[in-house]
């Protein structure tokens, strides 16, 4: 009966943070970023031990049976740690199956996803954010043709959730005939993207109208990831400002620097409540889910850009060096901003959801 | 996180709805000096726990336990039918909480009830021409004389001073103490001889504020609240309540709603304003901010009802809330184009010029009650534990 | 051979500033603002003595024969003084006649405009900024029907420059049969606006394609007016910050206040070069005139809003009082922003001018 | 205000065009360590007065009088055909103007010519890990020993250090003097024993900068420029030139042009990016800013050629110019949507990832050469005569 996260949720988040400190410290993230072929299996295994891949999967299918708010709190922790992990795909596939899969499909796929053994990639970019470079997937007679870009974890996934251009959703096994995949490199080397090419690839259709739920969940997780990454950038900026001395005093005693930090905090803190609410609405207030997820995604992206830039500035020249590594958070926020639609695109959808735009 | 309504809560909602339907013809809104019908409506609201809900019954309130859901239901149902929510003047929002925290038993008994019922109207005497952001440097002096203080000096930004019965005022009672320790918080009647009120016209064209001048104003010492020389700390408790009031997310949501309605009904060259993608995008940016502040407000309410400190989520409300209101008004003006600058009267004026009025008045709110710069200092120092402004060599 | 104003232009501006100090000090402006029926004839007479109404009118018609840059420098001085004067209409009518009038029309109207005896009002708002409230003027058989809003100096003008909805431009005498006028009140009481109603009003057509030039000139003058008003707001803010003490020091020694002032100056100073160039281009680089006038208008409006707000903030509570009167500049900038198109509208036209928008 | 081209100027333009057509096959661009063909092109440019135009002939320049119109014509014509404009390294943009202002006759004769011709490559040794915004606190020490100084310490943000022949460097020669008076500006070869260069990788993924470590580096005293202990003032002359360079409006205009071309050619769901009114509006906002900085630049150039101080118009260039470049890159990324985050390689990458590269590198430029905060201090203190940061009680 309240607007807050529970003590259990707080404990889960703290425990996950400790797991990530051990399994994915910055040095581990750097190795993942440096070796583009590395799959990060050890990190994912640690998260699987934690139960994270199945966070929203019902217990009868081997998951933790929790809600999207718990998943969002986990995404925040992953963002804080700039941790490499195919978590977005796991949750998106969980949503796709629980909301749009048959009992048989659920039984076949969910336990593998929950255990972390089946890695899922998300290929809905064109349907949500628009198609570029002649991309887009057409479905006909149970087969898919075309291409999808910006597919999460494309090279290591066992299963893909694919949207066609009419908004239909499909499951595609990674070893399906006619499917080819290739690497796409973004600024953010803590995540992996890829391109899929479909040449008459057999696919399992999911129920109609499932795409919106998958999109809303993914938007919320991306917002939560940015929330976590931006928190860390503020913390690092504040710590640096308290320690770095110029002109005989710590720079944090200069009002300009103080106010940069205050503005970052003032922008970010209210985002937290919106991210929480969007995640809560996904499970408990469906009429508000899409609008709040859209706004959480778009607004947190804008705030994230402001913080990524401002926190870097507070660090002065050190902020742009690889020595400090602040750029991992900067770029994480940068990818979250554009993935599944930049803020302008997502706000347009927010207007459409309310009937304010065609 | 659970905002679902149980059957009990749905029952409460039904109760509120029944009340609002039954008393539909008695709705009378707020006013500085309310008429009898408004006083009656206020009493009715207190009797039913829709105003002064959590204030103890012995002091004239309804005496209910804090309950976020019931509070939310009352707000929703009153907003839905447009019923006036009870008085929201400075006496109720600032003085009453202060008296509850630090007033003597006699002060509570004497002032809270009449204030809640609208029978006593208050004004606030804090800022002075030379003491704005640096409020603690205030110079209005109160010289001890037997059982009285004799007050001389002046105050500024005193709204409703001309209509008020009473003032809660900061005066310097111990001129030799360090600046924060020499101040007392004192209550006295505005009818006391030696008080002059001059209206202070602002950029809106109206006099929302006054200057108040004190010349040898003799008032009893018994009006001091919270102890002589403790006024700075008493006032800070009150300022905290003011900051909360200035960032009311419900009012902001209502204003956004009005903006979107405006954009749906107004058009230029036959095209609705909302159909202009540039303005629509700005409206969506503001809607996102409104949602963040709405849910941030619920989060703060939850913390406050659980007796927890709201931390950063509370510190940012004034800064972000005032700015957001200002920006909503700015978009309305921009979307209205040339119509957006009309004011005062005339057949083409929209919403009685309230968008322009709000745009200007809100700028005053951004400045007042702790400027945006002071808010940022507070956020950095209290919220982020950053260093305070260092002491100067020459200060 | 250079990008600067001449010594003569600088002298003219300084001399005009002195004229305005004498003829329109703030006390005089306050009286104009308080009495809505007052015409400000004394101020206009002082400016007419100066030759200002005919600044761009050729000498053979009694004007000073100068260029739009000189007019813009004058508008800047008027904005600095928040002076009430039908100057925009005088220059706009001069442009309409010199660019689109016959020799006979020029001979008939220009000397009166140059002497200040014929006051001109500008009624092109609907054609430039779009029509609202069912406004707009239709021309047929030499007669005008419809309505025009936001007409400058409508109640005191002898002559109106009126645009019809197809972009044609007309001269209408204030005493023409079928013309009625009424007051429209804006936030800015240093200028007067009105509404015109046309019921088959006889009008003199001007040459086709004259509207763009009238619009460009008016945009440039509005930008210059904002430039001047914003300069004064910065000057007042800086002066106040150097004088006002809080916490035992002048507030201008706080970095937050210093940076607010620095940001205002950094935003405004480059506007000056753009306003100059737009005015210069109007006479000497016609291919660039419309684009630079549009950008000068839109950008200076955005910067003006920022400065109007920030300078007020630097003044603390005093900034919003009528005691100080800073709001006269605030509102002057506010009206300039919206008149003949808010920034969004004008930027759209800027895109159209380049063929970037339909 | 007169930018018309007289027949004489049109004749000059024709001359430039003829040159550019004639030597079309010799175009070779800048590089840290230019190849012979590039050195030849540079010499050709100097011979014709298209590079080093106003530098006296006796020091290896072309020796022309400053002429804003000719300068503009050269820039326009070179830009029109995409011809490389001659070297623009730190030696040419920072050291040469400094030597011209305060160098000895021997230093001018020895260094300016080879630097202009690209035969000598320089790097800059100013910032240190502990001396960034507070550059005057630098600690690299130069201890006198006969005719030499022996230098120890380290520098950071030294671009091209690995390729440079020479360094112009700030060192502390008078440890007991007040901090601004103990610094000297000295030139010495990067081949001197005891110098170690370590690449400094940044967020772009490349090492645009280096750290440079000095261990007992022995260099002759004759390398000091502008007098021993005068280095702070010499460096400030140089920094002024750097600030000008970082805010080059021609480069900004070219970048905006590229952005608009991108928006005209790229599309999403079959709609061109420029046809999205929200992105188009942002492009127009940036275009207005580009025009302000372009004309502001012409205004500064006029003032500089007339020997006048540019005042506020000059002080704002670095702050506004760097931010504008960053914002242009940001819009390109936003308009490209998901494509905007691609980097390094791959078939879908646009413009070799240069939008992202610029977005990140420009953030470094906003910070480097005086952070935005330092720029605002300078604008307030020098441009608006506001008080300097007050002295602290404890400092």
Could you characterize what this model shows?
The complex is a heterotetramer, with 2 copies of chain A (358 residues) and 2 copies of chain B (395 residues). By secondary structure, chain A is an alpha+beta fold. Chain A has 3 domains: 7-115, Orthogonal Bundle (Butyryl-Coa Dehydrogenase, subunit A, domain 1), CATH 1.10.540.10; 120-205, Butyryl-CoA Dehydrogenase, subunit A, domain 2; 211-353, Butyryl-CoA Dehydrogenase, subunit A, domain 3 (Up-down Bundle). Chain A has helices at residues 7-23, 26-34, 41-50, 68-80, 87-100, 103-115, 125-129, 211-243, 255-284, 286-314, 327-338, 343-353; strands at residues 120-123, 136-140, 143-152, 159-163, 169-173, 179-184, 193-202, 204-205, 245-246, 249-250. A 4-stranded mixed sheet of chain A has the order 1-4-5-8. A 4-stranded antiparallel sheet of chain A has the order 2-3-7-6. Chain A is globular, with a radius of gyration of 20 Å. By secondary structure, chain B is an alpha+beta fold. Chain B folds into 3 domains: 7-88, no CATH class; 122-228, Beta Barrel (Butyryl-CoA Dehydrogenase, subunit A, domain 2), CATH 2.40.110; 246-383, Butyryl-CoA Dehydrogenase, subunit A, domain 3, CATH 1.20.140.10. Chain B has helices at residues 7-22, 36-48, 68-81, 90-102, 105-116, 231-246, 249-265, 277-305, 312-315, 317-336, 354-367, 372-383; strands at 122-125, 141-145, 148-156, 166-172, 183-189, 195-200, 209-220, 224-225, 267-268, 271-272. In chain B, the strands form 3 sheets. In chain B, strands 1-4-5-8 form a 4-stranded mixed sheet. Chain B has a 4-stranded antiparallel sheet with strand order 2-3-7-6, with no helix packed on it. A two-stranded antiparallel sheet of chain B has the order 9-10. The longest helix of chain B has 29 residues, at 277-305. Chain B is globular. The N and C termini of chain B lie far apart (50 Å). Chains in contact: A-B, A-C, A-D, B-C, B-D, C-D. Chains A and B meet through α8, β10, α9, α10 and α12 of A and α8, α9 and α12 of B.
